């Protein structure tokens, strides 16, 4: 059921039916499982308490990567799987997952000699069956990356990874799943679990949190999947299981592209503690991260950077890019994500394994941890376990991406004079079904939104067809203006209002409330204080 006007009521009216699967959690893990399960012709419902991708899946470092650091920690299986997934996603999600060069900058202060890194990189490339590695001397590196003027620079090692827009990747998976017949509902929280007399989970109690209507329903399913990421222990607690996860916070700074202009990513070890740091070009800006600290038990939806994390990140930036004279005024926004890792009590949080965990307890299948990059593997592992309970799963419908590229390499925006790369970007994000709307857009809607890669028509497209309930859904996840524009893009609100208010069906009072809630959220969780 497509997310056009009135879709929520239509979905709510269909909830009371026997489901094969109910997936709780609308991040990449839940979306990945929904995608494969609908492709396998299962009757599947996904529910998300907040907005789709509002948890960790819009707050990652946005890399689709093998993860060289995991190789160093001997997480071989995960590195191998991630490298293969990266290559797969680069083909299947072209335009949304994009290849990007990385330069590892070896510094005199490093505890790790450059040759060790080079040896690791060789193994990494063998895993990917590629050999694009090159090493650079200091002069070459500076020619490649003019801001890289750290005095202790020794040598650079270049390799290839990829990056993406994490929230849009989740959205694409969800929208494609919906077109295969799955249902996905945001702002619908599972408050409790239904259980049989012998304590097996057999359904959920769901409450509407959209703020538009008060309603609650009990829904049964053969299997209930807990894909709630860092919140997974909360649901496991409802079946009397002890907590197993350790929430770790990672925070990022977003800098204006012109204050730290990078054509490719730069990675290096933090001078203070030797942790790997990455400065990466993304959507016209530069993202820098990340920290890795214990978050504690207060698992709010919108975590924020602490002042010591911000200092730690700025210290590293100033060390490696001293000529840029960066300071906190150069930071446009910040964002923090919570990573669920299985708690083994290691003193250094960075040393906990990033592999995903699956536990099947009293009929509740919990899938947590892992990476954005490996969502398909997590989904496949989950379905393999479910298959034993649901009987043979039919994988005959191939759930590949729905990007239509014409045989001559041309893309579908017939009437629009858009460069091919821009057409591919729009298609990869909005799908072939969006072409009509973009083709019908008035010329002023095809103007870029300030310094970002977006055009105003994307806001209309998202408001009409992408399940936007609140303004922050649109500005922080459907498009990422809240991360990329100073002050969260607040100065653009009058123009945005003219485009989306009627599409969203909001009266003036509702608009005022949405705008003030957005400002409050942005100041609380995304501003550098
Ligand atoms: C700082 C950081 C950087 C990272 N960088 C990368 C990277 O560059 N590349 C990479 O591959 N991976 C990266 N990762 C890992 C990756 O982002 C996560 O593994 C992934 O996003 C987790 O997705 P998820 O769906 O499991 O959890 P989430 O995205 O958190 O989704 C869980 C959802 O469940 C919902 N929920 C909770 N309780 C309920 C309930 N009762 N009812 C309904 N819904 C509920 C929440 O609202 C939330 O939206 C990073 C992680 C962090 C923290």
Task: Give your account of this protein's structure.
This protein is an alpha+beta fold. It contains 17 helices and 18 strands. A hairpin with a 6-residue loop joins strand 12 and strand 13 (276-282). Flavin-adenine dinucleotide binds at residues 24-30, 47-50, 54-57, 60-63, 65, 189-190, 227-231, 250, 290, 337-339, 368, 370-373. Flavin-adenine dinucleotide (FAD) binds next to helix 2, strand 8 and strand 16.
Bound molecules: flavin-adenine dinucleotide
Task: Report the radius of gyration as a whole number of Å.
Answer: 23 Å
Q: What is the mean predicted local confidence, pLDDT? A: 90
> Approximately what portion of the residues adopt beta-strand conformation?
15-25%
The assigned structural class equals alpha+beta
Number of helices: 17
Share of residues in helices: 25-40%
Distance linking N and C termini: 42 Å
Summary of the model, kept short:
By secondary structure, this protein is α+β, with helices and mostly antiparallel strands. Helices cover 34% and strands 23% of the residues.
Keywords:
single chain; 529 residues; alpha+beta; 10-stranded mixed β-sheet; 17 helices; 18 strands; 34% helix; globular; binds flavin-adenine dinucleotide
